[in-house]
Write a structure and sequence with these properties.
With 382 residues, this protein is α/β, with parallel strands linked by helices. The protein has two domains: 234 residues, Aspartate Aminotransferase, domain 2 (3-Layer(aba) Sandwich), CATH 3.40.640.10; 112 residues, Alpha-Beta Complex (Aspartate Aminotransferase, domain 1). The strands form four sheets. A seven-stranded mixed beta sheet has the order 2-10-9-8-7-3-4, with helices on both faces. The protein has a two-stranded parallel ribbon with strand order 1-12. Strands 5-6 form a two-stranded antiparallel sheet. A hairpin with a 4-residue loop joins strand 5 and strand 6. The longest helix has 38 residues. The two termini are 25 Å apart. The relative contact order is 0.16.
Length: 382
């Protein structure tokens, strides 16, 4: 733990799109006594008066942040939130329409090893425009009309641009398909009023992880409108979520209040940083996806590299230089933004990545990367 803390928290430029950094207050709440306690809806456990009050307050706050009618903070992760959604809004033999993992969709909702296979729900995949990194709305209308999926889930893991929820809502309603939006990656941008507003656009559910572009503890959330409250929230306990880890819930509530207060400034800065980073990488000779379409409207920059060995080698060389990415390669700006970086700093980050891409020894780049990281020791937007 000490070695990890020194290396990852103090010396590395963390650019993983799935990660963020929490405020000191969130961390303090995670260590509170509620982490030792149980609470159940049937009142089996006594001594829960403040947990009850906390949950009610948190749900009200979440509804305000996301423009929802109801909310639950109980899912233990974004994946558990997806499991609750599929379990309650589909039946065995039904179907779910998502983005194919081959196009950047979430593997946890796929037909290979994802959750739908465990409950006998068939996978369908959106027709996808890989050049624009987005759903092909025109082709999707025909698919929805023909297949009439039980559940249509917008959102993906490699998420650069808003999805066509409004454009496809009519087709979904005509087919009798329920509509949800997995905002795991973009919840913080949605909370800040950027990217898109899925519930206003017609989705019944907005759900996902709370620790990516949103800066909460690791966990999940579901918010929604309409009749799905009884179907989803009303049926999650005890079959899908029993004890909800109330220290995590308290920490999430604090993060949601941070989003309520300063989320707009944060989200706008994240997107501005992503655009600056993508532009600088592109100008430096690194292949960046969607250069003809403005690169990105989210917290992600997606490198346009297709050779698996080249990708793995580049990701490892970046790690050797204390620049942390995934094997996508997706580059995320959330944590850098929380630490106070602006577009001019993104240009400096891009210079370091370009040096590694062009073959400079990672050890030489590592000194400069660590020096840059150590200039940003505060956590902003708290």
């Amino acid at each position: 733990m000490d070695k990890h803390q020194k290396w990852r928290a103090e010396e590395c430029l963390n650019l993983i799109a799935s990660e963020n950094i929490t405020s000191h207050a969130v961390r303090q709440l995670l260590s509170g006594d509620m982490g030792h306690r149980y609470r159940a809806d049937d009142r089996f456990y006594k001594g829960t008066r403040y947990m009850d009050e906390l949950e009610a307050m948190g749900e009200k706050l979440a509804c305000g942040v996301f423009g929802a009618d109801w909310a639950t903070l109980r899912p233990l992760s974004g994946h558990v939130a997806d499991m609750i959604m599929v379990s309650t809004l589909t039946k065995p033999g039904g179907s779910i329409l998502t983005v194919n993992p081959a196009d950047g969709g979430y593997p946890g909702l796929s037909d290979q090893a994802g959750y739908p296979t465990f409950v006998n729900v068939r996978n369908l995949y959106f027709p996808f425009d890989s050049e624009r990194m987005n759903i092909d709305a025109d082709k999707t209308r025909g698919l929805i009309e023909d297949e009439k999926p039980s559940l249509v889930v917008f959102g993906q893991s490699f998420f650069l641009f808003p999805h066509p929820v409004k454009e496809l809502l009519g087709a979904c309603r005509s087919a009798g398909s329920r509509v949800a939006f997995d905002g795991s990656h973009v919840l913080g941008l949605i909370a800040g009023g950027e990217f898109q507003k899925p519930l206003e656009e017609g989705a019944e559910l907005l759900l996902g992880s709370t620790h990516k572009s949103l800066f909460g503890p690791q966990g999940g959330i579901i918010v929604g409108k309409g009749r799905a409250e009884a179907e989803v929230k009303g049926r999650q306990f005890p079959g899908l979520v029993d004890n909800a880890h109330w220290n995590r819930v308290s920490a999430l509530i604090w993060a949601l209040d941070e989003a309520r207060r300063v989320g707009g400034k944060y989200a706008a800065q994240v997107i501005a940083n992503s655009k600056a980073l993508a532009k600088s990488l592109h100008e430096g000779g690194v292949p960046v996806k969607c250069s003809n379409y403005g690169f990105t409207e989210s917290h992600q920059v997606f490198l346009d590299m297709k050779d698996t060995k080249e990708i793995e080698n580049f990701a490892q060389r970046l790690e050797d230089a204390n620049i942390i990415v995934d094997h996508g390669i997706r580059i995320g700006t959330c944590e850098a933004t929380r630490r106070g970086m602006k577009p001019r700093d993104m240009e400096r980050v891009a210079e370091l990545i370009v040096r590694v891409y062009k073959g400079e020894e990672p050890a030489k780049v590592r000194r400069d990367a660590t020096k840059l990281r150590r200039r940003f020791n505060r956590i902003l937007y708290t």
